[in-house]
Amino acid sequence: MTDSFSRDLRAPVLGGGLALLVAGTLAALPAPLLAQEDDPVSRQEIPADSVEVVDRIAAVVGDTVILYTEILESLLQARAQGANVPEPGTPAFDSVAHQTVEELVDQLVLLQKAKQAEIRVPPEMLDGETDRRFREIRNGFPSASAFQEAVQSSGRTLVQYRQFLRNQVRAQIMIDQFVRQNSENLPPVVVSEEDIQSWYEENLAGQTRPASIGFEQLVIEPRPSQEARDSALAEAERAVAELRSGEDFAVVARRYSDDLSNREQGGDLGWVRRSQLVPAFAQAAWAARTGTPIGPVYTRFGYHIIKVENVRGGERKISHILIRPELGPADTEIARERAMAVADSIRDGTPLSELAERQGVEEIPVRVPEIPYDELEQRLGPEYGAALADPIPGDVIGPFDHANLIPDRPAFVIVRVTEFKQQGDWEIDEIRDQVRERLTFDEGYRRFVDELRNEVYVDVRI
Questions:
Q1: Residue 305 · residue 261 · CB < 8 Å
Q2: Can you give the three-state secondary structure of the chain, one letter per residue?
Q3: Looking at the predicted structure, is the pLDDT value of residue 447 above 90?
Q4: pLDDT tens digits, residue range 4-34?
Q5: Domain presence at residue 428
Q6: What is the residue-averaged pLDDT of the chain?
C-alpha cells in the first residue's frame, strides 16, 4: 500500500525464536478460501480411494458456501505434504476438520472485511511474493519433474497453479494488511501470571532455545544534491500547474509519479492511517481539504503532491504523486564517508541513539529486538548475515552496504551488538514479557475476529 514511503510496520520480534502472532501473520490459506479470489481451477479432485466423499455444506459465511469436500481436500493436501493429519473417518480427524472449518470461517470473514476496506495489493508486491512462494515450494521437491508431476496430479497446469498461488498470496496479504490497520483497535486483555506459567509449561519447558542476537543500528542513506532537489521541485510544480488547469489527478500521476508501486493506479494509496505514513506526509494529508490537491510536500523520499479522496474515522483514502530527486555517484560517496565518521564516533563512545537523532533514517528502528541468530539473513538480508558472522557484545560493525533496505537507493548500516546468547534451555524469566505480549495479542485478536463474525452471517454445520 504505502511500502515505498511508509513507516516500518513489522511485528515486534520475540527473543530466541518465539514467534509473536502480530498483525494477522497467517499460515497458508486452505483451498476453499482461494476460490473466493476468482480462481476457476482452485477446487481440486480428491482421489477416489482416499475418503468417502460426502458433498454437504460445512459452513456458510455471508453468501459463501464451504463444502465438506473442500475441507477434506485441504486436510488431505496437508497430509500429503507431511502434516500430521489423523486418518479420515476417525474422531480425531473429525475434530481437526471442525477446527479447519472454524479457521476458514475466520479467514473468510477477514477477507470480506479487507475487501470492504478497499485494501489493495500493489502488483509488484504480489508478483514478488508469488515468485518467492513458487520458488520455495518448487525447492521442496527433489526435481523439476517431480514438482510438475505433483502439480499435474492436482488437475492443474503449471500456469494454472501459479495463478492459484497468486490468488492465495493476494488473499493472505489483504488479510494481513487489514489486521495490521486494526491492530490498535483490539479489545483490551488482562494476562495473569498463571496464564504465562501455563503457556510456558505447555510450549517451552524442557526445550532448547536457539542462539539469538540483539543489536542497535544506524542507517545512513545518500542525500540528493541541492541541484537535484531544485530540479525535482520544478517538475513537481509543473505537475501542480497541470492539476490546477483541470487535468485529472490520476492522469497526472501516471505521467509524472516516480512511485512505481501505485503510479499505474493513478497514485492511489488506498485507505491509510496516520501512523503508517512518514511524519511530514501525514501532517500535510491530515491538514488537507478533501478533494483538493496540496503540495509539493517534501519528505526524505522526494516531493509529494497529495490528494485526500475521502475520510473514514481515523483513516484517509489518499492518492499522491512522488517526484524523486536523482541521486548521483557523488551523493553515494558522501554518504559512505559520513557513515564511516559516524561509526568512528560510536567506537569512541558517543551513544548510537544520540547520533541517530541527527544522522539516521527515522523510519528504520534503531533498536532491533532479540531475534533467532539462524533467522538473521532471512529477516534482514545476507548483508546482515555476513557482517554479523562472529558477533561479540559491544562490537561496532560497519558501515556495510545494503542495497535493499531502503527502496530505490543504497544505504550504509552501522551495527553495535548489544547481546548474543548461545543455544541453551528456555528460562521463563527471560521471556515473561514476550509471552505476556503474545498472549495479550492472541486473545485480543480472537475477540476482534469474534466481533467481526457477529457482523456477518455465519452458520457452521459440522
A1: no
A2: CCCCCECCCCCCCCHHHCCCCCCCCCCCCCHHHHHHHCCCCCCCCCCCCCCCCCCCEEEEECCEEEEHHHHHHHHHHHHHCCCCCCCCCCHHHHHHHHHHHHHHHHHHHHHHHHHHCCCCCCHHHHHHHHHHHHHHHHCCCCCHHHHHHHHHHCCCCHHHHHHHHHHHHHHHHHHHHHHHHCHHHCCCCCCCHHHHHHHHHHHCCCCEECCEEEEEEEEECCCCCHHHHHHHHHHHHHHHHHHHCCCCHHHHHHHHCCCCCCHHHCCEEEEEEHHHECHHHHHHHHHCCCCCCEEEEEECCEEEEEEEEEEECCEEEEEEEEECCCCCHHHHHHHHHHHHHHHHHHHCCCCHHHHHHHHCCCCCCCEEEEEEHHHHHHHHCHHHHHHCCCCCCCCEEEEEEEEEEECCEEEEEEEEEEEEECCEECCHHHHHHHHHHHHHHHHHHHHHHHHHHCCCCEEECC
A3: yes
A4: 333 222 232 222 222 222 222 223 344 444 4
A5: no
A6: 82
Q: Once rounded to an integer, what is the mean pLDDT over residues 55-80?
A: 81
Q: Are residues 256 and 399 in the same domain?
A: no
Residues 398 and 269 in one domain: no
Same-domain pairing of 146 and 274: no
- Residue 205 inside a domain? The answer is no
Instruction: Find the domain containing 112 and state its range.
Output: 15-192+445-460
DSSP lists the bridge partners of residue 280 as: none
pLDDT digits (tens, 9 = 90+) for 394-436: 999 999 999 877 767 788 999 999 999 999 888 888 889 989 9
**Residues 308 and 336 grouped into a single domain:** no
User: What value, to the nearest 5°, has the Cα angle with vertex 37 and ends 379 and 264?
Assistant: 70
457 vs 61: CA distance, rounded Å: 6
Asked if residue 388 and residue 250 are part of one domain, the reply reads no
- Banded pLDDT at 55 (limits 50, 70, 90): low
* Last residue within a domain, chosen from 270, 292, 323: 323
Tell whether 173 and 118 lie within a shared domain.
yes
Last residue within a domain, chosen from 323, 352, 386:
323
Least confident of 5-14, 172-181, 216-225: 5-14
pTM over 0.85: no
Position 144 in a domain = yes
